[in-house]
Write a structure and sequence with these properties.
- The structure is a single chain.
- The protein is of the alpha/beta class.
- Strand 14 and strand 15 (282-283) form a beta hairpin.
- Helix 2 (25-86) runs parallel beside helix 7 (333-345) and helix 8 (387-395) packs parallel to helix 10.
- The radius of gyration is 34 Å and the shape is flat.
- One of its GO terms (biological process) is protein transport by the Tat complex.
- It is found in: Membrane.
């Protein structure tokens, strides 16, 4: 770089002599030499910097490749362990031997995530040394400051001996500061709200005498109120309720155990690119917000935000999410699919029943004792195994899927599962297969699938790419199952309102072909196109998640949601919704917009009294601007 030959130096010197003259030449040469040296040094430094950056980039790529190889090896080993655990021992008459399903104190770990830790309780927390929390975990730091709250001050004072250790901040109406024991900080106030989690609680209160607001911070909250201040079904870590504990002394002991550094798994993954929460200021899908029992999800502009410190792994949000924008971190959806395929393929014939059992689920002792061939798959919580996997099991030849939920499953999660089961029941009943294709364990049903009516499912595992999302897996499973059970059928099965499966209808008398619906659809289910004569609106029903954005954004109220399952032939191709002729320019004759849209615009703008408005709009943009 910057190498100059002797002849080039001679030429440069002669030119400089002519230009500057003999008197100033030495000074110019000296200055030029100094600047040349500086530039050369800078270039050498820059060249070395480029080399360092390139080397760092290569090292980073090598590190990522090594981490991926390590990850793949670890997953392969763990998958072998999981598969070995999930194999069922089958005796000569086809009976299966069920395994015990009890929580274990030492949870096996996969990809840094505890797989068997029970959610929805303080047992999700693992004590760690200060500052040693893993990067992929959610960390809590508690110094043990307890906010003790109640309905009446005297009631709290009566428990002074029980709560005599550590730093106590007592808050209740009528609390006399002069009577509080040593070590207590007392406020005669009423708590109006609580936010936060273990190590970072913020309590809003109103002072009784002055009615002024006051905020208090604490690491742990012990709520002895008759009606708990927090009403969500799953309380944040560090929030202890008096009515859920046998005695105040038990609460005090629990609080003492919640001092130090703790971590828990990050239970979820969020892919904002496929979230259908909001478009153009209009709220679309809110299914995850509606079912989170821990109130860990909030709307944040066009997206949602999941607070990892509040999320406790019930997985209702991932079950509710129709696109897969929210998914379980471990076990991943495709991991469960592979484990299920392995279980089914290990049998000579597809199992009549697949039992999906959550950890610690109370199960019927008769499970696995019938003469039918069955298989058992374990999951951390039952919501991990959603409708896309139900249909994948049915498409693989399973006659019935039985779900055994964990003890203490939140009511919102149960209601969501009930709705999803109702969707499946509507389909199977209309197909003549009864309503019992997917049920909860323990339900005594007389309408189990009629094996004489069922056609044999495919023995080939459902093949999807490793980066497939929830909707792609659901569509692939549904298509295979529909084609195996109703080959060539053109039937349409109506589903309950709120189902994530369905399409839309467009009123051709009202629609003006403005294409707002196509531009706002978060899953690209609707498309608008034009040829030389016609504008056309079409729907890809397999992509429609029934979020309702198109219905709410349509300026003419021409769209209606249609929860349904149409035939595989219709569902996986573009269906016409509406079409209209294109209006031609009065000046040049070229088509420029749908006729209904043009007439609608002229009708609405004519009321403004603008002169010559109709003539202007009947021209194409080129002719209009060319005047």
């Amino acid at each position: 770089m910057f190498d100059i030959s002797s002849w080039e130096l001679v030429v440069v010197g002669l030119v400089a002599l002519v230009v500057t003259g003999p008197e100033r030449l030495p000074r110019v040469v000296r200055t030029l030499g100094l600047w040349t040296g500086k530039i050369k040094a800078a270039c050498v430094s820059l060249h070395k910097e480029f080399e360092r950056e390139a080397l760092a980039g290569n090292i980073q790529e090598m590190r990522q490749e090594l981490e991926q190889v390590s990850h793949d090896v670890e997953r392969s080993v763990l998958d072998v362990v999981d598969i070995d655990r999930d194999y069922r021992r089958i005796d000569p008459v086809g009976r299966t031997t069920p395994t015990a399903h009890k929580p274990t104190p030492d949870a096996p770990r996969q990809d840094g995530v505890a797989m068997r830790q029970a959610p929805l309780s303080h047992t999700i927390l693992t004590r760690v040394a200060p500052g040693q929390g893993a990067v992929d975990k959610v960390v809590y730091q508690s110094d043990g400051v307890v906010a003790l709250i109640g309905d009446r001050g005297p009631s709290l004072l009566a428990m002074a001996e029980t709560f005599s250790q550590g730093t106590i901040i007592a808050i209740a109406p009528g609390l006399d500061d002069e009577q509080t024991p040593v070590g207590w900080t007392a406020f005669d106030a009423r708590v109006t709200g609580i936010e936060g989690w273990l190590g970072d609680f913020r309590l809003e209160s109103v002072m009784t005498d002055s009615n002024t607001p006051r905020q208090v911070t604490a690491d742990i909250v012990i709520d002895l109120s008759k009606t708990p201040t927090l009403g969500q079904q799953v309380s944040p870590p560090g929030y202890l309720q008096g009515r859920s504990s046998p005695s105040p002394s038990t609460l005090a002991a629990e609080a003492r155990e919640l001092v130090g550094s703790f971590e828990k798994p990050r239970y979820f993954r969020y892919t904002p690119e496929i979230c259908a929460h909001e478009i153009a200021g209009q709220t679309g899908c809110t299914r995850c917000l509606d079912v989170c029992a821990a109130d860990a999800i909030r709307s944040e502009g066009t997206l949602i935000h999941v607070e990892p410190h509040l999320c406790q792994g019930c997985s209702a949000c991932t079950l509710a999410c129709p696109t897969g924008a929210l998914s379980v971190a471990q076990p991943r959806r495709l991991d469960l699919l592979e484990r299920m395929h392995t279980l089914i393929d290990a049998l000579d014939t597809p199992p009549s029943t697949l039992h999906v059992i959550a950890e610690g689920a109370p199960i019927d002792p008769d499970v696995g004792t019938s003469v039918e061939v069955s298989a058992t798959l374990e999951v951390p919580v039952i919501a991990n195994f959603g409708e896309e996997l139900w249909f994948a099991a049915l498409a693989h030849g399973v006659h019935r899927v039985v779900l055994w939920p964990e003890a203490g499953m939140p009511a919102d999660t149960r209601q969501l599962l009930d709705r999803r089961l109702a969707d499946v029941a509507c389909i199977t009943e209309a197909m003549g297969l009864g309503r019992g294709a997917v049920t909860f364990g323990g339900d005594r049903r007389d309408d189990t699938p009629d094996t004489a009516t069922l056609r044999p499912g495919s023995r080939e595992p459902l093949t999807v790419s490793r980066d497939s999302r929830k909707r792609e897996l659901l569509n692939a499973a549904l298509r295979r199952w529909q084609e195996s059970q109703l080959p060539g059928s053109h039937e349409t099965f109506e589903l309950p309102a709120g189902s994530p499966i369905g399409g839309i209808s467009v009123d051709p008398e009202t629609c003006v072909m403005c294409s707002v619906c196509a531009r706002s659809c978060p899953t690209a289910s609707i498309r608008y196109g034009e040829n030389t004569q016609t504008a056309r609106l079409e729907l890809a029903e397999a992509n429609c998640i029934q979020c309702g954005l198109c219905e709410r954004l349509c300026p003419e109220d021409a769209i209606t949601l249609q929860p349904r399952l149409v035939s595989a032939e219709r569902r996986y191709r573009w269906q016409p919704l509406n079409e209209a002729p294109l209006a031609t320019c009065d000046a040049c004759g070229s088509p420029h917009m749908p006729e209904p849209l043009l007439e609608s615009m002229i009708g609405k703008l004519a009321t403004t009294g603008a002169a010559d408005i109709e003539r202007q709009f009947r021209r194409c943009p080129a002719c209009r601007h060319g005047q």
